[in-house]
């Protein structure tokens, strides 16, 4: 077998290896044991292994020092959690979130238990402990930094319980993209101008949604309308004809 493989033309060997890597990565990314939370937008769901955000796994959402971007990232995260079932544990240094705003993305404040942990170390401890309880709908941790070892522990705990784990890296600078992580996906959300409708306050927020890193697929960027009261994104009206532009990005 080795002799036959070595005798193949370089392009054939490359194609075979690429296909094997893709299949292995897809198995590693989803595993088939836990359900996924689809976004409801074909261009995004078809791009993600399994067709959505995998539960029983760790994901990252990158925030930004820009207030509009940070708010968009928070609502994006809340929208994902709103589509899960069960209580949400939100671990953070101190409670500075305006919880009624989460309701705008379908995440009712009654579903959220906030844990004020004081620092990154305690947030990680609280997250790992909460992830041991399979009845939860999700566990969020707001972190400034996360080591590769810490991310592996969270990923393992999420796999074992089947609970969705989300790390929110608020005010995360783009240069931090190179940091190692065991998370299946990393997302970055930026607010972009919405088209003027002639009536102030009626335009749905529009975002640039970047999949910066993902196991089993390539980075990508989409333009979407922000989460509604059910936690769902939408395709901007100008793109509903099926031509959905997206922009590939090089992996970090």
Automatic annotation (TrEMBL):
Gene3D superfamilies: P-loop containing nucleotide triphosphate hydrolases (3.40.50.300). It comes from the Bacteria. This is Damage-inducible mutagenesis protein.
């Amino acid at each position: 077998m080795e002799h036959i493989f070595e005798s193949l033309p370089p392009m054939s060997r490359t194609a075979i290896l690429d296909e094997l890597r893709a299949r292995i990565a897809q198995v590693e990314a989803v595993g088939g044991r836990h359900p996924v939370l689809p976004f409801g937008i074909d261009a995004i769901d078809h791009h993600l292994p399994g067709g959505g955000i995998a539960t029983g796994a760790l994901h990252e959402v990158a925030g930004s020092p820009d207030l509009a971007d940070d708010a968009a990232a928070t609502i994006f995260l809340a929208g994902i959690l709103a589509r899960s079932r069960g209580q949400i544990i939100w671990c953070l240094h101190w409670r500075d979130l305006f919880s009624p705003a989460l309701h705008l993305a379908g995440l009712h404040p009654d579903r959220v238990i906030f844990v004020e942990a004081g620092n990154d170390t305690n947030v990680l401890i609280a997250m790992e402990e909460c992830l041991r309880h399979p009845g939860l709908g999700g566990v969020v941790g707001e972190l400034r930094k996360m080591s590769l070892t810490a991310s592996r522990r969270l990923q393992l705990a999420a796999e074992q319980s089947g609970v969705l784990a989300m790390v929110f890296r608020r005010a995360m600078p783009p240069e931090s993209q190179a940091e190692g992580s065991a998370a299946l996906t990393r997302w970055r959300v930026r607010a972009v101008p919405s088209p003027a409708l002639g009536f102030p306050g009626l335009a749905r927020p529009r975002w640039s949604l970047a999949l910066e890193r993902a196991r089993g697929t390539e980075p990508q960027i989409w333009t979407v309308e922000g989460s509604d009261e059910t936690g769902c994104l939408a395709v901007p009206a100008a793109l509903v004809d099926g031509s959905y532009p997206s922009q590939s990005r090089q992996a970090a």
